[in-house]
User: Fold this.
Amino acid sequence: MSNSFDVIIIGEGVAGLTAAGLLAQKGLSTASFEQQLFGGLVLNVNELDPAPAGGEAGGAAFASEMTGANADAGVTSIPEEVTALAAADGGFTVTTAANRYHARQVIVASGAKLKTLGVPGEVEFEGRGVSKCADCDGPMFQNETVAVVGGGDSALQEANVLTHYCGKVLLIHRGSAFRAQPRFVEQVKANPKIEVRFGSSVEAILGGQVVEKIRIKTAAGSEELAVAGVFAYIGLEPNAAFVPDSVKRDATGRLLTADTLETALPGLWAVGAVRSGCGGSLDDAMADARRAAEAVAARLQ
Ligand code: NAP
Assistant:
Protein backbone atom coordinates (compact mmCIF):
# COMPACT_ATOMS: atom_id res chain seq x y z
CA MET A 1 0.00 0.00 0.00
CA SER A 2 1.23 3.48 -0.87
CA ASN A 3 1.48 5.92 2.02
CA SER A 4 0.58 8.83 -0.22
CA PHE A 5 -2.99 9.90 -1.04
CA ASP A 6 -4.80 12.78 -2.68
CA VAL A 7 -6.96 13.17 0.41
CA ILE A 8 -6.78 11.88 3.98
CA ILE A 9 -9.86 12.02 6.18
CA ILE A 10 -9.23 11.75 9.91
CA GLY A 11 -12.16 10.02 11.59
CA GLU A 12 -14.68 7.42 10.45
CA GLY A 13 -17.79 8.82 12.11
CA VAL A 14 -20.68 9.72 9.82
CA ALA A 15 -18.99 12.96 8.70
CA GLY A 16 -15.70 11.26 7.83
CA LEU A 17 -17.37 8.30 6.15
CA THR A 18 -19.54 10.64 4.05
CA ALA A 19 -16.60 12.77 2.90
CA ALA A 20 -14.38 9.77 2.15
CA GLY A 21 -17.04 8.01 0.08
CA LEU A 22 -17.77 11.09 -2.04
CA LEU A 23 -14.09 11.80 -2.73
CA ALA A 24 -13.35 8.21 -3.72
CA GLN A 25 -16.36 8.22 -6.03
CA LYS A 26 -14.84 11.26 -7.71
CA GLY A 27 -11.74 9.22 -8.52
CA LEU A 28 -9.40 10.73 -5.91
CA SER A 29 -7.13 8.40 -3.95
CA THR A 30 -8.64 8.60 -0.48
CA ALA A 31 -7.73 7.18 2.91
CA SER A 32 -9.74 7.40 6.12
CA PHE A 33 -8.23 6.89 9.58
CA GLU A 34 -9.98 5.59 12.70
CA GLN A 35 -8.48 4.82 16.10
CA GLN A 36 -11.45 2.84 17.40
CA LEU A 37 -14.33 1.25 15.53
CA PHE A 38 -15.92 2.97 12.51
CA GLY A 39 -19.11 4.88 13.20
CA GLY A 40 -18.13 7.34 15.91
CA LEU A 41 -20.87 8.49 18.27
CA VAL A 42 -23.75 6.86 16.33
CA LEU A 43 -22.32 3.43 17.04
CA ASN A 44 -23.89 3.53 20.52
CA VAL A 45 -27.34 4.55 19.29
CA ASN A 46 -29.77 1.68 18.66
CA GLU A 47 -32.36 3.89 17.04
CA LEU A 48 -31.31 7.13 15.34
CA ASP A 49 -33.99 9.79 15.86
CA PRO A 50 -34.70 11.15 13.33
CA ALA A 51 -33.61 8.19 11.18
CA PRO A 52 -31.22 9.18 8.37
CA ALA A 53 -32.92 9.68 5.00
CA GLY A 54 -32.63 6.47 3.00
CA GLY A 55 -30.37 4.84 5.60
CA GLU A 56 -30.59 2.31 8.40
CA ALA A 57 -32.22 3.54 11.63
CA GLY A 58 -29.77 1.59 13.82
CA GLY A 59 -26.52 3.51 14.37
CA ALA A 60 -24.19 0.53 13.97
CA ALA A 61 -26.02 -0.74 10.88
CA PHE A 62 -25.98 2.75 9.33
CA ALA A 63 -22.23 3.15 9.88
CA SER A 64 -21.57 -0.36 8.69
CA GLU A 65 -23.54 0.27 5.48
CA MET A 66 -21.49 3.43 4.79
CA THR A 67 -18.20 1.66 5.55
CA GLY A 68 -19.06 -1.14 3.12
CA ALA A 69 -19.99 1.35 0.39
CA ASN A 70 -16.72 3.24 0.97
CA ALA A 71 -14.68 0.05 0.57
CA ASP A 72 -16.51 -0.63 -2.71
CA ALA A 73 -15.77 2.95 -3.84
CA GLY A 74 -12.04 2.40 -3.19
CA VAL A 75 -11.48 4.17 0.14
CA THR A 76 -8.45 2.84 2.01
CA SER A 77 -9.48 2.47 5.66
CA ILE A 78 -6.52 2.65 8.05
CA PRO A 79 -7.14 1.55 11.66
CA GLU A 80 -4.51 3.76 13.28
CA GLU A 81 -4.72 6.69 15.69
CA VAL A 82 -3.48 9.95 14.20
CA THR A 83 -1.09 11.54 16.67
CA ALA A 84 0.19 14.50 14.63
CA LEU A 85 -0.57 16.50 11.55
CA ALA A 86 1.78 19.00 9.90
CA ALA A 87 1.99 20.98 6.67
CA ALA A 88 4.72 19.51 4.45
CA ASP A 89 5.73 19.40 0.78
CA GLY A 90 2.76 21.39 -0.43
CA GLY A 91 0.42 19.07 1.46
CA PHE A 92 0.35 17.39 4.86
CA THR A 93 2.17 14.72 6.80
CA VAL A 94 -0.16 12.59 8.92
CA THR A 95 1.61 10.69 11.67
CA THR A 96 0.36 7.64 13.59
CA ALA A 97 2.17 5.47 16.13
CA ALA A 98 3.03 3.03 13.33
CA ASN A 99 3.57 5.10 10.18
CA ARG A 100 3.75 8.42 8.37
CA TYR A 101 1.46 9.27 5.50
CA HIS A 102 1.21 12.14 3.03
CA ALA A 103 -1.84 13.81 1.51
CA ARG A 104 -2.42 16.80 -0.71
CA GLN A 105 -5.47 17.80 1.31
CA VAL A 106 -6.74 16.71 4.74
CA ILE A 107 -10.25 16.75 6.19
CA VAL A 108 -10.44 16.60 9.98
CA ALA A 109 -13.60 14.70 10.90
CA SER A 110 -12.46 13.40 14.26
CA GLY A 111 -15.70 14.26 16.05
CA ALA A 112 -16.11 14.55 19.77
CA LYS A 113 -16.30 12.43 22.87
CA LEU A 114 -18.61 12.56 25.88
CA LYS A 115 -17.48 14.95 28.61
CA THR A 116 -16.95 13.45 32.02
CA LEU A 117 -18.31 14.71 35.35
CA GLY A 118 -14.89 14.74 37.00
CA VAL A 119 -16.28 13.64 40.38
CA PRO A 120 -14.91 11.02 42.80
CA GLY A 121 -15.99 7.50 41.86
CA GLU A 122 -16.50 8.19 38.15
CA VAL A 123 -13.25 6.57 37.01
CA GLU A 124 -13.16 3.93 39.77
CA PHE A 125 -16.64 2.60 38.92
CA GLU A 126 -16.34 2.69 35.13
CA GLY A 127 -17.77 -0.60 33.89
CA ARG A 128 -19.09 -1.33 37.40
CA GLY A 129 -22.13 0.94 37.22
CA VAL A 130 -20.71 3.99 35.48
CA SER A 131 -21.52 3.74 31.77
CA LYS A 132 -21.36 5.84 28.62
CA CYS A 133 -23.83 3.76 26.60
CA ALA A 134 -27.51 3.44 27.52
CA ASP A 135 -28.31 1.11 24.64
CA CYS A 136 -25.40 -1.27 25.36
CA ASP A 137 -25.49 -1.35 29.16
CA GLY A 138 -29.18 -0.65 29.85
CA PRO A 139 -30.06 -4.39 29.87
CA MET A 140 -27.70 -4.87 32.83
CA PHE A 141 -29.97 -2.69 34.99
CA GLN A 142 -33.26 -4.61 34.67
CA ASN A 143 -35.80 -3.14 37.11
CA GLU A 144 -33.10 -1.17 38.96
CA THR A 145 -32.83 2.57 39.57
CA VAL A 146 -30.21 4.49 37.57
CA ALA A 147 -29.20 8.14 37.32
CA VAL A 148 -28.83 10.08 34.07
CA VAL A 149 -27.03 13.43 34.33
CA GLY A 150 -27.63 16.35 31.95
CA GLY A 151 -30.40 18.40 30.42
CA GLY A 152 -29.75 18.33 26.66
CA ASP A 153 -30.95 16.07 23.82
CA SER A 154 -28.57 13.24 24.74
CA ALA A 155 -29.57 13.04 28.40
CA LEU A 156 -33.30 13.12 27.70
CA GLN A 157 -33.12 10.70 24.79
CA GLU A 158 -30.99 8.22 26.73
CA ALA A 159 -33.14 8.55 29.87
CA ASN A 160 -36.08 7.43 27.73
CA VAL A 161 -34.05 4.52 26.31
CA LEU A 162 -33.10 3.38 29.82
CA THR A 163 -36.75 3.14 30.90
CA HIS A 164 -37.08 0.18 28.51
CA TYR A 165 -34.96 -1.75 31.01
CA CYS A 166 -34.81 0.05 34.36
CA GLY A 167 -37.44 0.34 37.06
CA LYS A 168 -36.73 4.02 37.56
CA VAL A 169 -34.53 6.72 36.00
CA LEU A 170 -33.49 9.74 38.07
CA LEU A 171 -32.75 12.58 35.66
CA ILE A 172 -30.32 14.89 37.44
CA HIS A 173 -29.98 18.36 35.89
CA ARG A 174 -28.06 21.30 37.30
CA GLY A 175 -30.35 23.87 35.65
CA SER A 176 -34.01 24.69 36.16
CA ALA A 177 -35.12 23.94 32.59
CA PHE A 178 -34.05 21.55 29.85
CA ARG A 179 -32.33 22.75 26.71
CA ALA A 180 -33.39 19.69 24.68
CA GLN A 181 -35.74 19.59 21.69
CA PRO A 182 -39.42 19.92 22.78
CA ARG A 183 -40.31 16.40 21.62
CA PHE A 184 -37.69 14.87 23.95
CA VAL A 185 -38.93 17.06 26.83
CA GLU A 186 -42.50 15.88 26.18
CA GLN A 187 -41.38 12.24 26.14
CA VAL A 188 -39.65 12.70 29.50
CA LYS A 189 -42.66 14.44 31.03
CA ALA A 190 -44.97 11.67 29.82
CA ASN A 191 -42.73 8.84 31.07
CA PRO A 192 -43.84 7.66 34.53
CA LYS A 193 -40.52 5.89 35.11
CA ILE A 194 -38.50 9.15 34.92
CA GLU A 195 -38.16 11.36 38.00
CA VAL A 196 -36.56 14.74 37.26
CA ARG A 197 -34.34 16.47 39.82
CA PHE A 198 -33.68 20.06 38.70
CA GLY A 199 -31.08 22.26 40.39
CA SER A 200 -28.98 19.22 41.31
CA SER A 201 -25.30 18.46 40.71
CA VAL A 202 -23.60 15.12 41.26
CA GLU A 203 -20.84 15.46 43.85
CA ALA A 204 -19.70 11.83 44.12
CA ILE A 205 -20.45 8.30 42.97
CA LEU A 206 -20.30 5.85 45.87
CA GLY A 207 -20.34 2.09 46.38
CA GLY A 208 -18.37 -1.04 47.22
CA GLN A 209 -17.70 -3.50 44.40
CA VAL A 210 -20.27 -1.70 42.22
CA VAL A 211 -22.11 1.62 42.26
CA GLU A 212 -24.63 1.83 45.11
CA LYS A 213 -25.49 5.53 45.34
CA ILE A 214 -24.71 9.08 44.28
CA ARG A 215 -24.38 12.16 46.41
CA ILE A 216 -26.04 15.22 44.88
CA LYS A 217 -25.88 18.85 45.89
CA THR A 218 -29.05 20.91 45.79
CA ALA A 219 -30.01 24.36 47.09
CA ALA A 220 -31.15 22.60 50.27
CA GLY A 221 -27.79 20.83 50.82
CA SER A 222 -26.41 17.38 50.05
CA GLU A 223 -28.51 14.27 49.55
CA GLU A 224 -27.69 10.61 48.85
CA LEU A 225 -29.74 8.67 46.30
CA ALA A 226 -29.58 4.88 45.88
CA VAL A 227 -28.74 3.99 42.25
CA ALA A 228 -27.15 1.01 40.52
CA GLY A 229 -25.95 2.93 37.46
CA VAL A 230 -24.81 6.40 36.42
CA PHE A 231 -24.95 7.71 32.85
CA ALA A 232 -23.52 11.22 32.31
CA TYR A 233 -24.64 12.97 29.12
CA ILE A 234 -23.35 16.47 29.80
CA GLY A 235 -22.14 17.44 26.35
CA LEU A 236 -19.23 16.72 24.08
CA GLU A 237 -15.59 17.75 23.80
CA PRO A 238 -13.82 17.77 20.44
CA ASN A 239 -11.08 15.31 19.48
CA ALA A 240 -8.55 17.80 18.14
CA ALA A 241 -5.34 17.26 20.13
CA PHE A 242 -3.39 16.22 17.00
CA VAL A 243 -4.30 19.39 15.05
CA PRO A 244 -1.51 22.00 15.00
CA ASP A 245 -1.85 25.00 17.32
CA SER A 246 -1.77 27.31 14.29
CA VAL A 247 -5.38 26.25 13.65
CA LYS A 248 -7.43 28.44 15.97
CA ARG A 249 -10.07 26.99 18.30
CA ASP A 250 -13.20 28.47 19.87
CA ALA A 251 -13.70 28.57 23.66
CA THR A 252 -14.86 24.91 23.66
CA GLY A 253 -11.79 23.70 21.72
CA ARG A 254 -13.61 23.22 18.42
CA LEU A 255 -11.72 24.13 15.24
CA LEU A 256 -12.43 27.46 13.58
CA THR A 257 -12.93 27.49 9.82
CA ALA A 258 -13.98 29.94 7.14
CA ASP A 259 -17.51 29.58 5.75
CA THR A 260 -15.99 27.21 3.20
CA LEU A 261 -15.02 24.84 6.08
CA GLU A 262 -11.32 25.36 5.32
CA THR A 263 -9.15 26.19 8.34
CA ALA A 264 -6.52 28.91 8.35
CA LEU A 265 -4.08 26.29 7.02
CA PRO A 266 -4.82 26.10 3.26
CA GLY A 267 -5.80 22.55 2.32
CA LEU A 268 -6.86 21.58 5.85
CA TRP A 269 -10.63 21.34 6.37
CA ALA A 270 -12.79 20.57 9.41
CA VAL A 271 -16.26 19.01 9.40
CA GLY A 272 -18.82 17.71 11.89
CA ALA A 273 -18.67 17.83 15.68
CA VAL A 274 -14.99 18.85 15.77
CA ARG A 275 -15.81 22.07 13.88
CA SER A 276 -16.90 25.23 15.64
CA GLY A 277 -20.44 26.10 14.60
CA CYS A 278 -21.54 22.72 13.27
CA GLY A 279 -25.06 21.89 14.49
CA GLY A 280 -25.35 18.76 16.61
CA SER A 281 -27.47 16.57 14.33
CA LEU A 282 -26.46 13.76 12.03
CA ASP A 283 -27.74 15.77 9.06
CA ASP A 284 -25.55 18.74 10.05
CA ALA A 285 -22.43 16.56 10.18
CA MET A 286 -23.19 14.93 6.84
CA ALA A 287 -23.99 18.28 5.21
CA ASP A 288 -20.59 19.59 6.37
CA ALA A 289 -18.90 16.54 4.91
CA ARG A 290 -20.58 16.95 1.52
CA ARG A 291 -19.64 20.63 1.32
CA ALA A 292 -16.01 20.01 2.21
CA ALA A 293 -15.74 17.04 -0.15
CA GLU A 294 -17.05 19.16 -3.04
CA ALA A 295 -14.59 21.96 -2.22
CA VAL A 296 -11.63 19.59 -1.89
CA ALA A 297 -12.47 17.86 -5.16
CA ALA A 298 -12.77 21.22 -6.93
CA ARG A 299 -9.37 22.21 -5.54
CA LEU A 300 -7.66 19.03 -6.72
CA GLN A 301 -9.31 18.36 -10.08
P1 NAP B 1 -25.52 19.65 25.18
O1 NAP B 1 -26.62 20.02 24.27
O2 NAP B 1 -24.28 20.44 25.21
O3 NAP B 1 -26.15 19.61 26.66
C1 NAP B 1 -25.35 19.30 27.75
C2 NAP B 1 -26.20 19.31 29.01
O4 NAP B 1 -25.37 18.90 30.10
C3 NAP B 1 -26.76 20.68 29.35
O5 NAP B 1 -28.06 20.53 29.88
C4 NAP B 1 -25.79 21.19 30.43
O6 NAP B 1 -26.39 21.97 31.42
C5 NAP B 1 -25.35 19.91 31.10
N1 NAP B 1 -23.98 20.02 31.60
C6 NAP B 1 -22.88 20.48 30.97
N2 NAP B 1 -21.79 20.38 31.76
C7 NAP B 1 -22.22 19.86 32.93
C8 NAP B 1 -21.58 19.51 34.14
N3 NAP B 1 -20.27 19.67 34.31
N4 NAP B 1 -22.34 18.99 35.13
C9 NAP B 1 -23.67 18.81 34.97
N5 NAP B 1 -24.35 19.12 33.84
C10 NAP B 1 -23.62 19.63 32.83
O7 NAP B 1 -25.03 18.14 24.93
P2 NAP B 1 -25.78 16.86 24.31
O8 NAP B 1 -27.10 16.68 24.89
O9 NAP B 1 -24.79 15.75 24.40
O10 NAP B 1 -25.96 17.24 22.77
C11 NAP B 1 -24.81 17.55 21.96
C12 NAP B 1 -25.29 17.92 20.56
O11 NAP B 1 -25.81 16.76 19.92
C13 NAP B 1 -26.42 18.95 20.57
O12 NAP B 1 -26.26 19.79 19.47
C14 NAP B 1 -27.66 18.11 20.41
O13 NAP B 1 -28.73 18.80 19.83
C15 NAP B 1 -27.16 16.99 19.53
N6 NAP B 1 -27.94 15.76 19.72
C16 NAP B 1 -28.98 15.55 18.87
C17 NAP B 1 -29.75 14.42 19.02
C18 NAP B 1 -30.89 14.16 18.07
O14 NAP B 1 -31.19 15.00 17.23
N7 NAP B 1 -31.56 13.04 18.13
C19 NAP B 1 -29.49 13.51 20.05
C20 NAP B 1 -28.43 13.77 20.92
C21 NAP B 1 -27.67 14.92 20.75
P3 NAP B 1 -26.88 23.48 31.14
O15 NAP B 1 -28.13 23.35 30.33
O16 NAP B 1 -27.11 23.99 32.52
O17 NAP B 1 -25.74 24.16 30.43
Observations:
- The CA atoms of residues 65 and 186 lie 32 Å apart.
- The longest strand covers residues 100-108.
